[in-house]
Amino acid sequence: MRSYTFTHAISRLPGRSITGGLRAVDTGAPDLDRFIAHHAAYVAALRSTGAEVRVLDALEAFPDAVFVEDTALCLPEGAIVMHPGAPTRLGEAAEMRPVLEEFYADVRQVEAPATIEGGDILVTEREILVGTSARTSEAGIAELARLVADWGYKVRTVNTPEGVLHFKTDCSLLDEETMLATRRLAASGCFDGYRVIHVADGEEAAANTIRFNDLVLMPAGFPATRDALLKAGYDVREIGNSEAAKLDGGMSCLSLRFSPVR
After folding, report:
1. Which of 11, 35, 213, 230 has its Cα between 20 and 30 A from that of 43?
2. Which DSSP helix (H) or strand (E) runs through 131?
């Protein structure tokens, strides 16, 4: 299944400048040592599935660069370099392009004035869902649809709930027919035709998990949602996420996941 079975991943170490990262609400500065420990556990979990994981050096000039998912969309046929909606993050996408070119012969680019970030993009077996948000514009979605059309992908625009940073802040793909989602997002009807497992009330931050090969990686500290996933038969690995969460980050934000076909 190309939407959750991967041979490769790219991640990036957090740097000292992480304390200056963007955040919707200031709940305190991340602790760098703790963040690095959480990141190491995350990378180890990805590697435990047999995937090749490239860990890039920190980019001190870009405090949010640890959240590599926003810089690109990686599909088997090629990669699309994003044009982030946060101006301070534009350089991150430029830094990622030469790395992607090591894996892909076909790397394409979303151009200004369109804006789009990977946190708003959810790839399923049947379509690519993209949420409009403060970071992703209608023009960005249209440009993405154009860029992936000849690869055979259908793009569908959905609405991100008010006050939610990215579409995938509130949802994750668990398998070819199942989503994990908050009730506020699922109520919009965007997942009609899919099976939905709701995160437990009060555990909305657990919605951003990733299915990576046989594992479901989820942030630690959400026992009711964890138990629901275990009951549904998933192999769950809990990863500390307290420091990334201070910068609105979650499991999907920390990696690009892909199986390139050259």
Report:
1. 230
2. strand 128-132
Total residue length of the chain: 262
Q: Which residues are catalytic?
A: 166, 253
What's the pLDDT tens digit per position in 235-248? Answer: 999 999 999 999 88
Task: Give 132's pLDDT tier (boundaries 50, 70, 90).
Answer: very high
Q: pLDDT at residue 262 above 70?
A: no
pLDDT in tens, 83-122: 999 888 989 999 999 999 999 999 999 999 999 999 999 9
Q: Which residues on adjacent β-strands are paired with residue 196?
A: 179
Per-residue pLDDT tens for 2-40?
Answer: 999 999 999 999 999 988 776 766 667 899 999 999 999
CA end-to-end distance (rounded Å), the chain: 18
User: What does the radius of gyration of the chain's CA atoms come to, in whole angstroms?
Assistant: 17
Look-up of token digits 């990863």: 239
- Look up residue 186 and give its two tokens: 């699922």
Alpha helices in the chain (DSSP H): 32-47, 90-100, 138-148, 183-186, 223-231, 242-245
C-alpha to C-alpha distance for 54 and 9, rounded to whole angstroms: 6
- 107 forms bridges with which residues in the sheet? 79
Token representation of residue 38? 């959480």
In eight-state DSSP terms, residue 156 is E
Q: How many CA within 13 A on the CB side of residue 144?
A: 36
Tokens of residue 175, six digits: 């398998």
Q: Which domains are delineated in the chain?
A: 8-258 (3.75.10.10)
